[in-house]
Design a protein that fits this description.
single chain; 485 residues; Outer membrane efflux proteins (OEP); 2 domains; 4-stranded antiparallel beta sheet; 11% strand
Length: 485
Amino acid sequence: MPTHSIEPRRGRTPRSPAHHVLALLGCSLLMSCAHVPVDMPVEPESLPETYSLFDANQPIADQWWRSWQSDDLNRLIDLALTNGFSIRTAEARLRQAAAVARRDTSALVPEITLSGGAGYTEREQNDIRTESETYSLKLAGSYELDLWGRVSSIADAAEADVEASRSDLRTARITLAGQVAETWVNLLVQQNQLALLNSQRATSEQTLELLNLRFKNALSTSLDVFQQQQVVEEARALIPLAEARIAVFQHQLAILLGLPPTTSLELTRQTLPTVNPIPGTGLPIDLLANRPDIRASGYRLVAAGERVQAAQANRLPALRLTADAGYASEDLSTLFDNWLANLAGNLLLPLLDGGNRRAQVSQAEALRDERLLDYRQTVYQAVADVEDALIQEQKQVEHLAATVRQLEAARNGLAEAVYRYRNGLQDYLAVLTQQLSVQRLERDWVARKGQRLLYRIALHRALGGDPLAVTHEPVPEEEGMYDVE
């Protein structure tokens, strides 16, 4: 990962102990790319040693979606990471921050300007006409001696902002990859729901035809026919809603890819991917390196600390040196024969400013405190995100297993109700009730399988990583303990 040092430069005035802590944070943020444990403004004892449900048994997968073995999903996310609006917006913000850093860093070196001029003067006095030409060439320079570290603090703050924006870009990639995967899963769920509804409608229509035949032969009542007609119409009524949701998710997916909403995505997969065992989650302390939003918050804390130093130094005297040297002549051929030079130093000592500079220090300190609190909250929220995703998927697995048992019982009940109805042991209402229950549970089963995938996506987003990390050819995860199909 490309990094830029945000340590204090050589020759700077010693800082306060608090400032050295912030400088250490900046160094640790850079070192965290190598997954080295570092000191952060969050006490280590405040983070759990492990997550509640799982141990760190394997490295975190950056391009986790490739283990789902879907060419459609791979193609969609690859396109989104290069063409998505949120990615291009984050890249533009990074360029802005880099430009500001170049501007603020430029004050660390002298400013030198070169100017030249030529003039012609014609004068007539007492019938005497005179003409003169003047030529000049001047080199001027100015430089502020950074006695108290004000200028370098401003430059360091700007460089920290660049790294924060770089981390924001990584966050945008993780977020967009997750959004594309979520929308793709929702689209597949609705396509499966539509296929299921069409199948249920066809089955219900066949049952309706049999009931009509039985009614003609006086083996069933008109009420039986009307009740079955209700089942058919319920399936028909749900089909347009599923079709509408499919269109909506297709539009959302196209926009995430940076394409017009009506673009045809030419997706071929119609089935939901197999849910593999939960991947290695690492340790909570790993989030400090893996979560770019934590890194961005840390860099902004470093920048705020640098601006406190700059505001404090702004209350002290400032010394600015100016120098110029040049040539002037009335003849271009002798321009470089006559030269002059000047060197001056200007000392600016604030005496009375109505508390302006003191207020700037207070504002900078308050911003630093805000950034510190933001950092702590971001770290704690990151741990909570992982814990939430883990417990949600675990409970969803249990919920799916219960749904399977419930669906099996409903199908057995339907078979028994049909048997009793055909043998004249009960009316058609029991068949109708069981039929509606089976169809509802079948639709719920599809939706709940999709929800489990969404929880898995949430887990991968919570773990962080880098979607553009160079990886080897993905190896499918082994099917295991949490499959309930």
